[in-house]
Amino acid sequence: MKKRICLALGALVIVMSIFSPMLVWAEPEGENPGGSTEPPAVEPTEPVTPTTPDTKPEKPNNNSNKNNNRNNSSSKNNSSSQNKNNQNNDSNNAQQQTPADTGVNEPEAESSIEKGVASIIFTHDMHSHLDSETVVKNGKNTSQGGFARMATAFKEISPDYKNDSFVFDGGDFSMGSAYQTIFEGYAAELRMMAYLGYDAFTLGNHEFDYRSKGLANMLKNAVSKNKAGDKLELPKLVIGNIDWDKTLAEKDLAEDGANLQQAFKTYGAEESYTVIEKNGVKIAVFGIFGKQSDEYAPESGTYFKDQINTAKEIVKAIKANEKDIDMIVCLSHSGTAEDKEESEDEQLAEAVPDINLIISGHTHTELDQPIKVGDTVIASCGSYTHNIGYVTFKKDASGKYSLDTYRLIPLNSSVEEDADTLNQLSYFRGIADSKYFSKFGYSLDTVLARSKIIFTDINTFGQKQGEDTLGNLLSDSYIYAIKKAEGKDYENVDVAVVPSGIVRASLPLGSITTADAFNVLSLGTGADGTPGYPLVSMYLTGKELKALAEVDATVSDMMPEARLYISGMSYTINSSRLILNRAVDIKQGVGEEATALENSKLYRVVADLYSCQMLASVKEKSYGLLSIVPKDKGGNMVLNYEDYILKTGKQELKAWYAVAAYLDSMGTVSSKYKEAEGRKILTDSKNLGELLKQPNKVGWLARLAVLIPVIIILLIIAIIFIKRRKRDANMMFSVSERQKKAIFAPIKKQKNIFAKKNKRWFK
What we know:
This protein has about 775 residues and is α/β, with parallel strands linked by helices. The protein has 23 helices and 26 strands. It folds into three domains: about 1-60 and about 120-425, Purple Acid Phosphatase, chain A, domain 2; about 445-695, 5'-Nucleotidase, C-terminal domain (5'-nucleotidase,  domain 2, Alpha-Beta Complex); about 700-763. The strands form seven sheets. The chain has a six-stranded mixed β-sheet. It has a six-stranded mixed β-sheet with strand order 7-8-9-10-12-11. A hairpin with a 2-residue loop joins strand 7 and strand 8 (about 280-290).
């Protein structure tokens, strides 16, 4: 009997240890990960605080790969973790399988931070890179980044970092990997930040990629799901310069603005700043949204106040209300630049000198040494979780906190991935698979193709002018996917366009997975509200295609995100030619088969939704010198690009899916992508014939600009010549008169004498 009781108790313990983790990330039933549903009106009852199990739950096998022979490769987005943790993509299992919360009932860790030292860990521009990713260095794949490595690095700073160190993020924590597909409904990024112990964060422009409604859903669901099971302390949201009054006053923005404002209240983000105390140091933290960030979030549906004026007001309020504050920290999504006139955070530091530390996001800047403006320290650690930043401040003799140490900690393969964090991530990966990627016939781990080609690293992609094989592959994929989607009804696509600004990742060596394909073109959402920009079909004239080439040739040198990679066209860029007239020999096709573009002919052109919307601004940006007006098949101006979104079945044809389908069709990436094929030819010829040939509107205007002064100069010369001739003529006339006087004066005198004598004679 005793033996049976012991066996039963043992079985009970095992069962409890297996299923207790499910309490941590368990979701309320009936939730939509896409975020279209609001969180429940009645808050779920909090579960009993779970204990840490002695054994880890058994990891399920991946049974949802597209083909059975495609299940052994690593993913760029999860290179290490995927090999360690395969997921079952069945939706029921995705909702039930939950990893352990290692932050509960753990033994107390000892602090390694000296009492009274401000120890600050920071990140920014993480862009949903929760997993590690594979990048090519020195011709080999290497794994870097990811939250599992972050967890390890945090603990190496201090085993008790959650209690003795501040952890901050400077915005753009979302949008850039598969996790963003469940951004609205499951708030994966924010909840994982809570799991790692972040104290505060601000918003970046990409948090508005799903518009204000999407952001509102994310904040509400983060709160509701945390109360349902996570039992984690969510980080404070600080952003001080949203102009609620102006937003709510505009009729078209009022409803969504009010919804977002309510979401802020639900999240507890009503104040312009927050105060956090750790390790005997009290810090006031506020957030700022920069001017350029505002420009990069055209669909935010939200107005923002001037960040410098707002910062002045907030700092004034902090100094007035918080008498015992040791430091003021600003989480700024504004960025820095080499040109100080464009370096928003340097301007902020100069204008508001009472800020001790600015964590500078948005520009993805990696500062090995901080920028110092007076007593203000500006810190940046780069993007995509490739590094974390660490800075400490100590109290000096005057009682002020001054910079003590500053360093960036690389999260490369030398940093071990934390196993418990990997378990947490596996849950969200399962949801992303079941709720999004399964609709396209893929899982995140599906191996689409294998590659022996070293494609351009994303950190250098688009930075230099010229053809790029990664850009070639992406633009070619659009045409392939449309052929596949339209089938027998396919209408020839003449040109496909991919701007460098929408490309967010490169492709690794070896196995390329669905996660890799998604990461390359991961931004945005479509008219259907689902993640990923869809492809749009439109028509441009041959003349407008030439203008498009000129955008690439000239504008992209000043704005690299406008660098274009085009399928179906070729041209030469002569950097010695006049600005806005550098693209010549613009043809449809490549090589010997290329033909001249007809100025008035309509050509079918395909690009992603965002890029199409940006085309309309070309005329404005070029002051009317270049004009591109997208049209429909009949030549009528396109007024709403969403009406021309392409579909595969009932689903929008997403740009990332085009890449995935194209890679899948090849199996092995074609050798044609090893080298450039002549789509863009660069030259700096100063030959007069090359400089003057094929002038466009700008070229003719330049000729006129040169010709008019020449004509004026010639006219001036002609006038001077005529005047000189006239003066010379007058001089000649004057000389002849004098000569006449000299000749005829004696004669006249004699005549007068004779006349007088005659008078006497006749008298």
